[in-house]
Amino acid sequence: MTGRPNSAVRVLVVDDQPLIRHSLRLVVGGAADLAVVGEAGTGREAVERALELRPDVVLMDIRMTDGDGIEATRQIAARAELGGTRVLVLSMFELDEYVHAALRAGASGFLLKDAEPDRLVDAVRRTHAGESLFAPSILTRLVEHYLDRGPTHAGAAGTPPGLTARETEVLLHVGKGLSNTEIARTLTISMGTVKSHVGSLLAKLQARDRAQLVIAAYEHGLVGPAARP
């Protein structure tokens, strides 16, 4: 798109409803640092367009004809040539089975379609920056789902073994849902330092993504779960 900086985040919009695709294009394209580089109306087309365009972020609808968004997400996440592409799933449905399926397929986040435009734009930016993004209500239930399964490793209570004091602090704030920028501001450290600590946490805790770091923070009692019935 003309007038966009070369560093603009490249976005592929995927939805089987033309009106929703148009609305998403308007919202995303309205941000100066984002650029919609293409659209797709089916899961199969989404994979084809992703391979063709190599977007930074795919906004992926879950329920579509001719191949659903979960399968398309799985295929995109599995392609080595799309290693720089992250998938942000959008859905009208706040169903646990969809959230878990999206995570297993390799999605970096899950957002409801009724989110405010500013939140959607922020979600695209954060997904591109490597921050898993989930609607608050979804993240709470996601965490509780994993907690209900019980500890996944020995010594689940207390500080995870092998972490430095600073890494534990960073994990605590990740568990609270803070972004890298917010963590840097809170701890008065640079963004580069935050990213370094997050990378170390992913390696030490054998976590695939930021969402699993949040779960680890809950499992070890660094962050308390929401009140449960």
Explain what this protein looks like in three dimensions.
- With 229 residues, the protein is α/β, with parallel strands linked by helices.
- The chain folds into two domains: 9-141, Rossmann fold (3-Layer(aba) Sandwich), CATH 3.40.50.2300; 152-219, Arc Repressor Mutant, subunit A (Orthogonal Bundle), CATH 1.10.10.10.
- The protein has ten helices and six strands.
- Strands 2-1-3-4-5-6 form a six-stranded parallel β-sheet, with helices on both faces.
- Helix 5 links the parallel strand 5 and strand 6 (133-134).
- The chain is globular and about 50 Å long.
- Mean pLDDT is 83; it is low at 152-156.
Class derived from helix and strand content: alpha/beta
Give the biggest sheet: 6 strands, parallel
Spatial strand order of the main sheet: 2-1-3-4-5-6
Helix and strand string, N-terminal first? EHEHEHEHEHEHHHHH
What number of domains?
2
Query: Regions with pLDDT < 50 over 5+ consecutive residues?
Result: 152-156
Write down the overall geometry: globular
Question: Which class of the largest domain in CATH terms?
Answer: Alpha Beta
